[in-house]
Automatic annotation (TrEMBL):
The keyword Transport does not apply. It comes from the Eukaryota. The chain crosses the membrane at residues 6-29, 41-66, 78-104, 116-136, 169-189, 209-227, 239-262. The keyword Membrane applies. This is 7TM GPCR serpentine receptor class x (Srx) domain-containing protein. It comes from Steinernema hermaphroditum. Keywords: Membrane, Transmembrane, Transmembrane helix.
Length: 292
């Protein structure tokens, strides 16, 4: 059996930096008029808010590690429903980002805004339905003290069984669609470079967005496949449950920290915020010295 204090401390170290990064990214996206006019950054804004809320639910989960007890039937049920639905929403929004990159790198740019808005709306509708199902009787997630990880309730209802099957379909469909999208993008890029007589190449910001998105997608596969399909490959054990918990807890932090430091537009604005704060602190210090 793992030490609860050690596991809880590890999860805090994984979640808290991502929460701080998400607050900075939200501030940057909210205050930048230029980025707010670019569709992919509007999708990123939805994604950051969703993952910030997801990290809040992880915070409630971490507290259960230290307390060695859940919050009671309904609070635990609501936290589990929010955790799972927000995870699904983040997965679907990353798929929307992949579709957006396909549109940007092909000849369908005029369709991008309208189509992506519809896709984002569908993400929220699907997630709302999932959240409602998880609150139904004999449905949702529980947090057994002996496993230290979320698991489906025992003896699930027919509706919950159907929801679990659909989650696997959505997960597999999202993975396949992302593979197709990113493969198509790099094929288009390679084709332009190979056959165009005067090819200027893909811009560095666009390539960084693509690379960051692909890295996040690879992490998603590493995280989701053991949880949704792990019983087919790995025996159930406390170690596998802990591994799933750690992967899910670190996922939003991984994406937010990556967005803050590897997205050129966001990183430049973050540097301006840091420099501005530093200059403000220096001015206050100088003013204080002069008054003294």
């Amino acid at each position: 059996m793992f030490n609860r204090f050690a596991v809880g401390s590890l999860l805090i170290c994984l979640v808290f930096p991502g929460f701080l990064a998400s607050t900075l990214v939200i501030r940057i996206l909210h205050t930048s008029s230029r980025l707010s006019n670019i569709l992919v950054y509007r999708i990123f804004y939805h994604l950051v808010v969703v993952e910030m809320l997801l990290m809040v639910t992880h915070g409630f989960t971490i507290a259960m590690y230290f307390m060695n007890i859940d919050y009671g039937y309904w609070p635990t049920k609501i936290i589990g429903a929010c955790t799972m639905s927000l995870n699904t929403c983040a997965l679907l929004l990353n798929s929307v980002v992949a579709f957006n990159r396909v549109y940007i790198n092909t000849n369908f740019r005029t369709m991008s805004t309208r189509t992506c808005r519809v896709m984002v709306g569908l993400c929220y509708v699907l997630v709302l339905f999932q959240w409602i199902v998880y609150l139904a009787p004999n449905a949702g997630l529980c947090f057994p003290p002996d496993t230290m990880s979320w698991s489906y309730v025992a003896n699930p209802s027919t509706l919950m069984t159907y929801m679990i099957q659909q989650e696997r379909v959505i997960t597999l469909g999202s993975i396949v669609s992302n593979v197709i999208c990113y493969f198509a993008i790099f094929v288009v890029i390679f084709k332009r470079r190979l056959f165009a007589k005067s090819w200027t190449g893909v811009s560095k910001p666009e390539m960084r967005i693509l690379i960051t998105s692909v890295v996040v997608f690879i992490y998603e596969m590493i995280m989701i496949i053991p949880f949704q399909f792990g019983s087919s490959f790995f025996p159930e054990s406390p170690l596998i449950g802990l591994l799933n918990t750690v992967l899910f807890a670190f996922f939003p932090s991984f994406q937010q920290i990556g967005m803050l430091f590897f997205n050129q537009e966001i990183r430049k604005r973050f540097a301006k915020v840091v420099r501005g704060q530093r200059n403000s602190d220096i001015s206050i210090a100088v003013s204080t010295v002069r008054r003294a």
